[in-house]
Amino acid sequence: MNASHPTKIGIIGTGNIGTVHLQQFSKLADRCEITAVADTNMPLAAKRAQEFGVPHVAPSAEALIHRDDVEAVIIGVPNQHHADIAIEALRAGKHVLLEKPMSLNADTARSIYAAAKNSKQVLMIAHQMRFESVPMQIKAMVDRGELGRIYTAKTGWYRRKGIPGWGTWFTRMDQSGGGPLIDIGVHMLDLALYLMGNPKPVSVFGATYAEFGPRRQGIGTWGTPDWNGIYDVEDLATGMIKMDDGSSLTLEVSWAVHMDTDNSPFIHLMGSDGGACYRGSEGKLLHEKFDRPIESRICRPEDDEGERERLSKHFLDCVQHGVTPISSALTGLTNNLVLDAMYESSRTGHEVKLDWEL
């Protein structure tokens, strides 16, 4: 923890999400320096290094982690590699910013959590939606008690035709951990729990469906399909999560569905004294006054710096000033526990109680 010099950063994964991190941390040159990148696609890593003026291209993730000129590691690789890379980085004394989901499943997430607990380093999960302007405003209202007790919430993200990278790691259970539930559902689960005040999930009932992917329908524009690959994940998931304080959360997500939807993520918080909703870049605060329902718009400022820049600054605050990450190892593990329970509930047809033995 040293704010006297720029933090030296290494980025593992130079694809779409890695490039986002390169763009954001390059803007913060007064606080950090990107010293190395790594990717299994070496030509791509070399191209990104040239584009962003990064001096070193490491031959592997392991080589990057053990460089003396790397103090913090950003991991933006397929889900199946999250645990091995994050654990090695933490054990090597590096701070870690890990892309969502925390891991492929709850078992490997537990391993990352244990490594973080035994380390003095920062582990932060890159849930950028926590840093969006409208959710941040709603969170401030919740913390001030304007909604009273939030007793239930509903969240989701319906994509009508958005299956990514058919046949690639995106659509393979052994490499991604699931379909839209672990891809975009984890965002909505994480944000909803955060806005609700981080209640502890205790049981889950869920169902998943694969009506489009196996027939090669519902294909989106993200990623390049591999028609020789496989599709063994869901394309829609729905479930209810019960909390230890009696509150509940309904979660519904899809990559493909015949439904009238604008493809925007949404959250509805229902409190004893008021409610709040978030959809896309806008939100509403809902109350009753003089026996009439009233609502107030919540808007994103025109000069908003953006959620990714705030996320990057928060990570540097954690590394340089000892700030506790708002998306910590425990929040990442919580998400994986709930996601695993939803898949298990769908498989068995029964409610699943979460195992909180850490």
From TrEMBL:
Organism: Paenibacillus athensensis
Residue ranges occupied by any Gfo/Idh/MocA-like oxidoreductase N-terminal domain in the UniProt entry: 8-127
All residue ranges annotated as the GFO/IDH/MocA-like oxidoreductase domain in the record: 137-275
One Pfam short name: GFO_IDH_MocA_C3
Protein name: Oxidoreductase
InterPro entries: Gfo/Idh/MocA-like_OxRdtase_N (IPR000683), Gfo/Idh/MocA_Oxidoreductase (IPR052515), GFO_IDH_MocA-like_dom (IPR055170), NAD(P)-bd_dom_sf (IPR036291)
MF annotations from Gene Ontology: nucleotide binding
Gene3D superfamilies: Dihydrodipicolinate Reductase, domain 2, NAD(P)-binding Rossmann-like Domain
